[in-house]
């Protein structure tokens, strides 16, 4: 069980020598055995947070602890055995098959050029089966559709067999049933394998139904609670409701008015 703890974490960028703070002083915990969904409007800082948690970019200040160990104390090899990451960047690969790409998830254990043993192959097969891309396994990754590639990159993170997985908009390109299946799979992995799963999404209705906990990022605050509690205290209405968009807090559904 791995728990992620953020202490006084300030995230953002250095632009022309000046700090550009995106979110300041985050104090929070991401729990193991839970699916946690990060919601917030465009440009609010979701990717920045995920990249900072994954050590792809430095925090401006504060600390991130992975099961009590500061993230900055871990080597990249140690980190790759603890945290699997699926970001939105397209992988820059040619002539690598889906099976080989998913196999790259095993590289923390085998080394980049290391050979895969029977256990590795079993984990690769299992990851491919779980995300439902068996028929794509021999296809070159650069020929996949956006949704197919997204599933492939999620399978790679699953093959990595880490206790923590961060995903930036993992359902963005998926068709509707695939979005549901992917979120259900990630929820199941959190519950059955005690994984810590933290993902950003714009699929608000799915997050409300399937997340154990929601992080709602807004310009002046970060609210963290169960979907029901965030509905009950008005946070989700504040985030969702606009003229012509109504959020029903009781059954947690969104209704959209026809304008004409
Ligand atoms: N390299 C960068 N340098 C400076 N500012 C950046 C950089 N990358 C992103 N930003 C800014 O940081 C803020 C947060 O961006 P981020 O990508 O984290 O938002 P997001 O919540 O993931 O948005 P979206 O839902 O649109 O993907 C935005 O104002 C963005 O313009």
TrEMBL record:
A GO term, aspect molecular function: ATP binding
Transmembrane segments: none
Entries under SMART domains matching the protein: AAA (SM00382)
Keyword annotations of the record: ATP-binding, Cell membrane, Ion transport, Iron, Iron transport, Membrane, Nucleotide-binding, Transport
Record localization: Cell membrane
Lipid bilayer topology: Peripheral membrane protein
This protein's name: ABC transporter ATP-binding protein
Organism: Xylanibacter brevis
């Amino acid at each position: 069980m791995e728990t992620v703890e953020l202490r006084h974490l300030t995230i953002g960028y250095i632009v022309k020598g000046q700090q550009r703070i995106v979110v300041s002083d985050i104090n929070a915990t991401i729990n193991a055995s839970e699916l946690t969904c990060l919601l917030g409007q465009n440009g609010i800082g979701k990717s920045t947070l995920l990249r900072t948690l994954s050590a792809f970019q430095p925090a401006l200040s504060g600390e991130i602890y992975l099961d009590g160990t500061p993230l900055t104390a871990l080597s990249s090899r140690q980190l790759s055995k603890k945290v699997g990451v699926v970001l939105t960047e397209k992988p820059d690969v040619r002539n690598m098959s889906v099976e080989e790409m998913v196999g790259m998830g095993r590289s923390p254990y085998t080394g980049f050029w290391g050979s895969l043993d029977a256990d590795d192959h079993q984990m690769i097969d299992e990851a491919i089966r779980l995300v439902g891309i068996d028929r794509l396994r021999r296809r070159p990754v650069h020929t996949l559709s956006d949704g197919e590639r997204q599933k492939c990159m999620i399978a790679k993170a699953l093959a990595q067999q880490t206790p923590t997985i961060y995903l930036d908009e993992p359902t963005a390109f998926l068709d509707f049933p695939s979005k549901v299946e992917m979120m259900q799979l990630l929820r199941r992995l959190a519950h059955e394998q005690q994984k810590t799963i933290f993902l950003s999404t714009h699929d608000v209705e799915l997050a409300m139904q399937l997340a154990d906990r929601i992080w709602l990022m807004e310009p002046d605050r970060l609210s963290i609670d169960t979907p029901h509690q965030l509905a009950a205290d008005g946070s989700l209405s504040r985030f969702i409701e606009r003229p012509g968009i109504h959020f029903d807090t009781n059954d947690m559904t969104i209704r959209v008015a026809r304008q004409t």
